[in-house]
Description:
- The chain is built from 3 helices and 6 strands.
- It is of the alpha+beta class.
- The chain has a 3-stranded antiparallel sheet. Strands 4-5-6 form a 3-stranded antiparallel sheet.
- The protein is globular.
- 15% of the residues are buried.
Amino acid sequence: MVLIRVQAVTPLEGFLVDVTFTDGTRRVVDLEPYLHGPIFEPIRGDATLFRSAFIDNGTIAWPNGADIDPDVLYHGLAPAWREAAPAPTRA
């Protein structure tokens, strides 16, 4: 299986980025739904930090250590924080 990774990223307006993947696919992705949780708060609140996105080992990353799984972006998967936790089982 060939892993698809991010080859290039260009920040656009708001939380939009133009992403090119290693298979040549290119699309505009809204990262807003993925920028939740403590590590992403500085990125959400600072446009300059958001625009400092770079590619690190095929992943969109930021200088504060935040990154986004390229599989999630490529396949349009729901952000991890939106996935419901399983209901506790009773013994």
